[in-house]
Queue: 2 jobs
Job 1
Amino acid sequence: MSVSRVVGSAATGITGSCDPFLIAYGLAHERTVRLALALTADIGVAEEVAQEAWVAAYRRHLSVRIDAPEPYVRRAVVNLVRNRARRGTVERAYLRLLDRETSDDARSGVAGPAGDRLEMVELLQRLPERMRTVVALRFYSDLSVAETAAAMGVTEGTVKSTTSKALAHLRDLWEEDQDG
Amino acid sequence: MADRFERRVRATLKGEVNSVAVGAPDASRLAEAAHRGPRTGRTLVIAASLAVLALVTIVVATARPERSTVLDAPARVTEAPTQVSEAAIQVSEALVDVTESPIEGTEVPSEAVQAPTPPPPSPAPSPTAPEEVEQPAAGPEDVLGVPLQARFDHTVTWTGDEVVVWGGGRTNWGGGPTPSTGSAFGDGALFDPDTALWQPMAPAPVTATSGHLAVWNGTEVLFIGGLQDPRQVLAYDPGSNTWESRSDAPFDLTSVDSAIASTGRSVLVWRSAVGMAAYDPATDVWEEVAAPPGTPDELVALHVDEATVPATVVAVVGAEGARSQGGHGIEVAVREPDGTWRRGPDLDRLIDVAESHAEFPLPSLTTLTDAGVLVVPTQGEPIPAALWDLEGDWVDLAVPPKNGCASNPSPIPIDGDAIAGNFCGPTWVRFDATIQTFEPFQQARPMVSGQVVFTGAELIAVAGICCDGTPSSGAVWASWRLPIGGGGS
């Protein structure tokens, strides 16, 4: 999808709007969906999370103007994914009480346009939450260490050490996968 | 090797993620969702989840009826609001009662004789013109025509349609965590925020009660315990304006040392050193259940998020100061779906609670947000807030903005966020759970601890105390309402 088309979509949604927030929405929406996809491996969940994050930011924008919302939305996406995982844990425990093991593993079965498996994205889901987030922000979103720290609400030192551990862990998983 | 693998990760990740088709942004949906109100999207997701779970529940319960006893899904989530013209008629009739014949034995504040002024109607959401949306009001406005005397140790409960104010004492707490055992009120009233009108409640089957607990369970307000009869249970139905006496609680309960929460189908009451019990309003049966673990203490709180399935219930025990300095710190536990408790990590944080505010202990500094359990330090202390996401360790947050006033912030949950106010100053802070930061919220009136409810659209404080001085300075009437828009002012 081209940038001009995206901007056009946003502009038609808000007739005649020159609101920088809405322009940013048009430009950055796809990026935030894809970040959420890297974090969840589920395009449906990713679109929901991104929309929820943009709605939260827009609601805030209506009272406290936010002209550059992407950092806010990025952090919101990271937090929303983490919160969903927490709620998912509770819900899965509830379902286990009903002797119904969760069969709808949201993190499997994602496929590309030609039906290819998204191997790296799936491997990413096997990392602990913080490592997964660091890898997605640093290597998919191309954020700097400082930007990643801001998005995660941690120190830059934590980002650096977590990145190192995450890459080591991911390499082990990758090699296992290749061998298997 | 690491660099090479790093490049592979970067390239492969980008290639895979970018190969998936993504829907176009739709700004009209964005505006529409933002105007539908907070958490709408999440509520829809939860509602859909509930529907699926309900179906599963029915199937499983039918096949294995013995397992159905563990189900405790919140019933109120599936109930639609029922505020209709009938209610408006009821309130209009009540207006005549209120203005012509105040409740016997009460002193009606002078403003009660004024005709209440309904708030101006909000403009319909305009998804195509968000710039024209009305901004939140600059500050709270008075709630007029309150047909009750100012009081202490009463309860203020939000039912989804109206604010229910009932009971309370005529005198102050006296500077300590002991409500007055002096004369109390047995009257109450309903406030409808839509019409800004009051309706007196029918006389309760008891003479007076203060220091009690109250909770809305989806169909009725339950008033439990209190200083005068600490085991009494009364159910009030606001739809029919009728009362019912119910089976006594299994142990004494007062607002000083006990907590209450509705999880949907049942109501939990907890007195830390004594135990926990679940009450089923449908069967009028009490059952003692597993109490949260931890050090028994008089000072407890229960926080519930009914938007999760099942409802998330968090128990908090604590008292003044860090354990390492002779205090208690904060202990937390989460109720598992099977009714057992999972204890969380202790927060050994020094949070001074000034002696003059000793009746507002550590549990009242906590609330449950979408990001987890939030602890907001007293605003006079330059110490960070803390957050526990119900899974890992406590995380330090920033020091909240403060106004130099060492009083209790009493955070109130607001659609997954929290607002913390203050007795002696007008500055509130809002905790944004989405990005987990604090920001100054509103130059408003001093918060009235424990007597503020959130309706989903505004904060409403009724019959408060101590807005301009210390508790011992006497009752100062404080009833106001503050529309909550998208955030701070």
Job 2
Amino acid sequence: MRHLARKFITVARFIGLFLSGMIAPIAIADSPPSVAQIQQDIRQFQQFFLARFADLPLSAYNDGVNGLPQYAQRRLNWQLLMEFPPFESAMQRGNARWQAPLPSARSLADCFVGNPPPSAYPYFFAGKVHTIVGDINACLITNGAEALDGASGDMARLVAAYKAPWSGERIDIDYRSEQMRQLYQQGRQYFWAKRGQMNLSCANCHVHNAGNQLRGDILSAALGQTSGFPVYSTAWWLQGEPMGTVHRRYQACNALAQAAPLPAQSKPYIALEIYQGILNSGIPIKTPGYRQ
Amino acid sequence: MIEQVLAFYFDTIETADDASIVITAPLSTAHKQLLAFKVEAPGAEKIAVLFDQNPQPLIMTMTMAINQAPNNHGLMVGRARLSGSGNLHCYALRNGVVGHAALKIAVAGHWQKQPSAGNAGVSYQTTIKVIKAAHGYQVMCEILHPMQAARIHPLTGQKINANYITQVTFKVNHNLAGELLLGKYVAKNPVVGINIAALRQGDEIIVQWQDISGRSGRASQIMGAT
């Protein structure tokens, strides 16, 4: 009898756990988080990584995986490469195109006069969210040129041309508007939700296993990830086009988790970029970055 | 294989361990990566860098010009391709003795055969960069070059002819400063460099290269105020 009772209690506990698990996602409201909640998210997220990598200051997270203590044995490669960075010729091409006149005689540099610094992107203004890639494409179209794919090397070089002079500027995204907080919410959902045949979320690798080894690679920390983009990657270099935007990286990550990649500048990717950008508040941008 | 290179380049296969040779390279890398290295052998006339696990061990050799001799700081910078974990060997000739140092490098991950983009769209542009170093100036050049070994294309099965740089020469005011001989295990778009002891404002640095298919290129830069 006593045995049966214990069994019943165990089963009831399981049902309770199951139900609480079921209820928990519903408890997350669809309404966007408040500014105070986002500030608390930023604090918690940054504190987690600052405790995980105790010797690494917040400003060093813009080097991505190169800065992590677990990467120490390979860091010398990056330091030697930076004596003559492989992205210099790509930057020259990007800068030339940034200054070159479009069919309407205006250049991209003219279009971006008066825009916020890249450290404040993405931002919400006049009813829509502006990303650097979106603004570049809008400028290209209004001045008679063709829009570029948001994951292409050409676009990465243009974004790098805009961001590079602002290297060192700390990321400071304005998330007070309801639309930005709504997108933050969507980005947070995308970041923590599992997807693909490997059943992985972004957080599985880049929060729970940041700094751990995955086959031949060290997993980077989620904190600071967007601050170095666009980056020059050796893996992409072998594929033929070394420069890539953060959305190209998201596509590559999705493909690694065996999930269908989304098009660059699709809404979930913009939301994810906003979520990551807000969590990176206070980290100086360092563009172009170099990743393995 | 290493003995053959030593016999060809130093005319001897007798070497002695030399603690003054400094190899700067990561202890670990991944297969898809190129490996950046820097070797320093103060006063060396010739330097050779070899990797014992590559099918052909030679990566690069350097010969210093005699006119640099009094304050020569033997230095060689390069980027190599490695085909597995092994030892990076550096041999340096000094006063008739060949010194030797080695660094063990672990290569993680698996070898990925990459379809090559081929020679199409390669600009063969050459760029010079000069960095102030502890012993003079570290003069480096980047050559946009495919650096292909002869092989069969992994996807199409077509034969690809060898096309890699064999020789890079550094000159100051048309006087030879140093000469590099490159093997086929130098990575694509090579960045190579040497140390030049004395450079003055107005000196012209010239880099010339030629590859196995007979193509050659050149770049020059006037030394600015230091």
